[in-house]
Inverse folding.
């Protein structure tokens, strides 16, 4: 990471081998990483010293990943959360959109994907200005994305859900954000991310 101050990251993953590999990878990226096997331990760490970034496995024993995400969002609203998952479904994506997830990483994730997600989290932590103006989406609105039977990643479902809602609301971003249960600011960030990735014009 380019910043002088190491990014502090809490990794919540119940599979020990994967947790060890990810922790080493995160450390190689210049971050200070704390790793725990479950949601209960994660809450203890956050209570003692809140971490600015949490990488969170959804499929945890005991307190589920989404339940933990909800508690983190309530108690530490500025913490940036990256979801790590081996599965995907529409309802989980909708919940994650509502809770303003930074990114979805599918297990096993590549170090490059992890670096991009952590960089995005750092940028969001540093951002203080209002979100940039989102690009026009006339082409996407005219031809909304078709449902995918077996989406590869939750991020694909999230994008499809947002763009389909935008199409239903004739491009009205206020109405779209209201329908999705997210802030207009979150919607603008998402649309800007899709443009930066070349996913929309």
């Amino acid at each position: 990471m380019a910043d002088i101050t190491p990014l502090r990251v809490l990794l919540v993953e119940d599979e020990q081998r994967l947790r060890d590999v990810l922790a080493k990878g995160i450390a190689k990226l210049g971050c200070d990483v704390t790793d725990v096997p479950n949601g209960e331990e994660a809450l203890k760490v956050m209570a003692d010293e809140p971490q600015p970034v949490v990488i969170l496995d959804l499929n945890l024993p005991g307190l589920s990943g989404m339940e933990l995400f909800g508690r983190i969002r309530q108690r530490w609203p500025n913490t940036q959360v990256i979801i790590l998952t081996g599965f995907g479904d529409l309802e989980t994506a909708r919940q994650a959109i509502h809770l303003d997830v930074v990114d979805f990483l599918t297990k096993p994730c590549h170090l490059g994907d992890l670096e991009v997600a952590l960089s995005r989290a750092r940028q969001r932590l540093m951002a203080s200005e209002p979100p940039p103006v989102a690009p026009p989406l006339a082409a996407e609105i005219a031809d909304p994305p078709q449902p995918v039977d077996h989406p590869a990643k939750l991020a694909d479902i999230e994008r499809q859900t947002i763009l389909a809602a935008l199409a239903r609301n004739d491009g009205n971003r206020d109405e779209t954000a209201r329908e999705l249960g997210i802030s207009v600011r979150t919607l603008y960030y998402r649309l800007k991310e899709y443009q930066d990735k070349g996913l929309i014009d």
Remarks:
- Residues 128-152 have pLDDT under 50 and may be disordered.
- The CA atoms of residues 59 and 65 lie 6 Å apart.
- The longest helix spans residues 111-126.
